[in-house]
Amino acid sequence: MGSVGAKEVPVLLGPDGRRIDGRKVDELRPIAITAGPLHQADGSAFVEWGQNKVMAAVYGPREVHPRHLQENNKAIVQCRYNMAAFSVDERKRPGLDRRSQEISKVIAEAFESVIFVEEYPRTSIDVYIEVLQANAGTRCAGVVAASVALADAGIPMVDLVPAVAVGKVGDAVVLDLKKEEDNFGSADLPMALVPQSGRLVLLQMEGHLSRDELARALDLGVVGCRKIYEVMKQALRDRYRTDGPGPAAEGMAA
Ligand code: CDP
């Protein structure tokens, strides 16, 4: 169809201030969270956020593998973020690449700072994040899914950790970038927040923002995170409603 090589840059911001998918600059993509869909894991969550579909499973606290990573005075948090080969337009080569390693590391560090790790010395808390369908913001969707999965597993934490990416398209600072905005915009800033204290536990940035734009982006991200926080809490309430779906209801039907 199109010519090979130069990609046409889409119009990211219309004259009416609307974005490529009709959203306002401060609008999130639709987000739905299911807590506890996997019965084998200690905790799990599935997040559908725009066109992202992300599953998280948590195991632990359990024995540390490999053993030499064990810490005598605290649990370690190990995270594996993985993108399925079929999750993107052009098939992704399976396995751990540098990007996945980086994302796994920053997510593990984010959770290590909110989990009460000192309560479980010599153990590991293992977080698996599988991206089944990707459309930008998957590390944030991964943090959201993992956070609900950790709560579902009963791991004591300071708070749930909502996350969202903010960025810049055209002249505008915008909330929750989708793929075209991520690819063709001028900045991408994923962040994860501890809502009660306002502490950021993950903050990365690609591209350029002025000091004012950065301040606006952080404000927008904090508001976005607080909205996502409400959806996360509701997912956990739904999971533990006595009349709700889940392993207990399934057991009764058998
Ligand atoms: O997903 P996230 O925004 O956290 O990370 P990114 O590295 O900024 O990637 C942005 C998007 O690019 C991903 O969500 C995918 O949609 C896409 N991507 C891809 O198509 N193939 C890859 N190997 C990596 C990313």
Structure write-up:
The longest helix has 30 residues. α2 runs parallel beside α4. The chain has a 5-stranded mixed beta sheet. Strands 6, 7, 8, 9 and 10 form a 5-stranded antiparallel beta sheet that branches. The chain has one domain: GHMP Kinase, N-terminal domain (Ribosomal Protein S5, domain 2, 2-Layer Sandwich), CATH 3.30.230. β2 and β3 form a beta hairpin. The protein is 29% helix and 26% strand. It is globular and about 55 Å long. By secondary structure, it is of the alpha+beta class. The chain binds cytidine-5'-diphosphate (CDP). The site of cytidine-5'-diphosphate has 14 residues, from α2, α3 and β8.
The fold-level CATH name is Ribosomal Protein S5, domain 2
Unreliable segments (pLDDT under 50, ≥5 consecutive)?
Answer: 1-5, 247-254
Specify the structural class. alpha+beta
Approximate helicity band: 25-40%
Q: What is the overall pLDDT average?
A: 93
The quaternary structure here is: single chain
In spatial order, strands of the major sheet run 1-2-3-5-4
The unique ligands bound to this protein are: cytidine-5'-diphosphate
What is the CA-CA span between the terminal residues?
54 Å
Return the CATH architecture: 2-Layer Sandwich
CATH homologous group name = GHMP Kinase, N-terminal domain
**DSSP strand (E) fraction?**
25-35%
Q: Tell me the number of strands.
A: 10
Order of helices and strands: EEEEHEHEEHEEEHH
Cα-atom Rg, whole angstroms? 19 Å
**Overall form:** globular
The biggest beta sheet reads: 5 strands, mixed
Q: Tell me the number of helical segments per DSSP (H or I, 4 or more residues long).
A: 5
CATH domain class = Alpha Beta
